[in-house]
Amino acid sequence: MYLCCLFKFSSYPLNNLFSTYHFKEDLTLGGDSLFLDRALELFHVQSSQNQLYKQYLECLSIDIQSITSLNLLPFLPISFFKSHFIQTGHFQPEVFFESSGTTGAINSKHGIFSLNDYLQNAEQNFREFFGDPSGYCILAVLPSYLEKGNSSLVAMADHLIKLSNHSLSGFFLHDLDQLHTVLLELETKAQPTLLLGVTYALLDFAEKYKMQLKHTIVMETGGMKGRRTEITRGELHAYLCMHLGVDKIHAEYGMTELQSQAYSNGGGWFKTSSTMKVLLRSVDDPFEIWGGNEFPMRTGAINIIDLANKDTIAFIATDDLARFSADGSFEITGRIDNCDIRGCSLLAV
Predict the structure, then answer these.
(1) Which of the chain's ends, N or C, has fewer CB atoms near its CB within 10 Å?
(2) Total domain count for the chain?
């Protein structure tokens, strides 16, 4: 099982995989010593108390004491969330989050030890980018997530809606007419508003109602869900800007397997929250890892360190492709070939 999953990440013959295991020389990867200390501390805990991760490290013949920097960390393939209940220590999850997936796909499941911990971290991440949620009216258009249930995105949105404490905040399932009415009222009152929506629902709304939103942040979360033809993120943002009268489209990057989020304030370039860091790995050598200041605009597969995943696994090798800009922000460029299309698929450039 472990060898098959590892082979997915490499173009090398399977019998050569472990003999070619190597790392680049030590990197500071941004020089955040506090994050480094916390990540290494968590690695040592999970390498001994997470049985799946422990077996994975043993397969790679990892010397635990040799891991002294972020680029040396071994990352667990995200596909294990489809086949295993991943936990550090032993606990009974308060809730299971499940990916939306596509028809016929095997969904990922993430057992959350404490729902309150998840919500508090999501709130902290939001505040880092947008400030106090009580300063906004928050409107969420997430129909497919609401219908399926067990969505981490819905849980986060519901928490932010409650924190906004605005009488008009809430979810809009399929009632786009009501959403239009509410937005008109909020714009008339110059009320700062956040419109958070899955891609296809925002497109449905923008097609039906052309608006000039002067006091509203429009934020997409990705995902066509098979409802519409896939388009590039650039095309999506240009269309939404033209039809909704905004100068830029914000975006949220998160997933079932994470408890932290990254956000973009326009242009599709994301920055991570304080509990999360994105690294890239070579698409040809899964053990060659680099940070944001080394190879700007060079495409690689995303590895994520999520310090909030202290009870499951904090070191995840995803199937998303991205590139860094010179300032360390990242842009999603696609998916690794032959990987399942996620229900919350992000559009390529």
Answers:
(1) N
(2) 1
> Is 336 a member of any domain?
yes
Encode pLDDT of 231-258 as tens digits. Answer: 788 999 999 999 999 999 999 999 999 9
Torsional class of 155: left (φ above 0), alpha (ψ -120 to 50), beta (otherwise) = alpha
17 within domain boundaries: no
**Distance in Å from the first CA to the final CA of the chain:** 33
Q: Note the maximum CA span of the chain.
A: 66
What are the contacts of 58-61 at 24+ separation with CB within 8 A? 59/2, 59/3, 59/6, 59/18, 60/6, 60/18, 60/21, 61/18, 61/21
Domain membership of residue 82 (yes or no) is yes
Do 246 and 270 meet the contact criterion of CB atoms below 8 Å apart?
Answer: no
CA dihedral 203, 207, 212, 215 (to 10 degrees): -30
Per residue in 292-338, pLDDT tens? 777 888 999 999 999 999 999 999 999 999 999 989 899 999 988 75
Q: How many CA atoms lie within 13 A of 337 on its CB side?
A: 4
Q: Cα-Cα-Cα-Cα dihedral of 255, 260, 265, 269, to 10°? A: -60
* pLDDT per residue as tens digits for the range 180-194: 999 999 999 999 999
